[in-house]
Amino acid sequence: DAKTTQPNSMESNEEEPVHLPCNHSTISGTDYIHWYRQLPSQGPEYVIHGLTSNVNNRMASLAIAEDRKSSTLILHRATLRDAAVYYCILRAVNMNYGGATNKLIFGTGTLLAVQP
Amino acid sequence: NAGVTQTPKFRVLKTGQSMTLLCAQDMNHEYMYWYRQDPGMGLRLIHYSVGEGTTAKGEVPDGYNVSRLKKQNFLLGLESAAPSQTSVYFCASSYSDLTSGETQYFGPGTRLLVL
Questions:
Q1: Closest approach of chain B CAs to the CA of A31, in angstroms?
Q2: According to a count of CB atoms within 10 Å of the terminal CB, is the N or C end of chain B lower?
Q3: CA dihedral defined by A22, A25, A31, A33, rounded to 10 degrees?
Q4: Which pLDDT score is estimated for A98?
Q5: Using one digit for the tens of pLDDT, what is the confidence trace for B23-50?
Q6: In 3D, which of A114, A109, A111, A113 has the Cα closest to residue A22?
Q7: Which helix (H) or strand (E) holds A47?
Q8: Rounded CA gap, B36 and A40, in Å?
Q9: What is the distance in angstroms between the Cα of B46 and the nearest Cα belonging to chain A?
Q10: Which of A46, A97, A108 sits opposite B103 (nearest CB)?
């Protein structure tokens, strides 16, 4: 399974942009890059995903390197509510029991602290 | 639309006891998953289901059983609880097999303490 590498923790100031890096040098050609975040005492929530091109949504932007071996999640203006663990995840195709399903393999993520 | 709900929110068991965790989703999703999360770690997949009546093993299936008798429900059973199963359990569901990058929706979690 393809692995991702993220810094253990990062700090940001409120209302400033945050760039969360992720390395995935063993990514395969068909793997999507997913980002989830987990707020304290809650389940993970979807942030954004992409394949090759940069992506934007109301929560964040995802910048994907041309060789796809790294990506960066961009929070344009961090708020205190953005303090969470951010997971960069690649899919893993699993052919078992007569069917295919793609698992999300979570690493330990990046703990983002936002200072007022 | 409640999304993904989990019952109970918190439970304390003694070693050897059994229990069932219930996950329910009202989004008509085909795929459902059970994860566990230990302190300081990411989520690990226990079992998953690709549709009603189907189940499959994930990364850490030992000591757990699952059933998907109804499309909207996914049950996780512990037949004989062990202290090593103390964890936070998350259920998730998704429309498809993520081929197109579809997302998983997670429940709020069940905190289980095994003494």
A1: 9
A2: N
A3: 10
A4: 42
A5: 999 999 999 999 999 988 889 999 999 8
A6: A109
A7: strand A45-50
A8: 16
A9: 11
A10: A46
Place of tokens 């910048």: A63
pLDDT at B72 over 60: yes
pLDDT score recorded for residue B2: 78
Distance from CA of A100 to the nearest CA of B (A): 7
How many inter-chain contacts (A to B, CB under 8 Å) are there?
64
Taking an 8 Å cut-off on Cβ atoms, the answer to whether A102 and B54 are in contact is no
- Which amino acid appears at position A36 of this protein? Y
The DSSP code sequence of B29-73 is: -SEEEEEEE-TT--EEEEEEESSTT--EE-SS-TT-EEE-SSTTE
**AA letter at B68:** R
Distance of alpha carbon B96 from the chain centroid: 17
Torsion of CA B25, B100, A52, B41, to 10 degrees: 40
Of A57-61, A86-90, A93-97, B25-29, where does mean pLDDT reach its minimum?
A93-97
Q: Report residue A101 CA to chain centroid gap.
A: 20
Q: How far is CA A78 from the centre of its chain?
A: 16
The C-alpha R_g of chain B, in whole angstroms, comes to 13
Dihedral sign for Cα atoms in the order B31, B36, B42, B47: negative
Q: What is the residue-averaged pLDDT of chain A?
A: 88
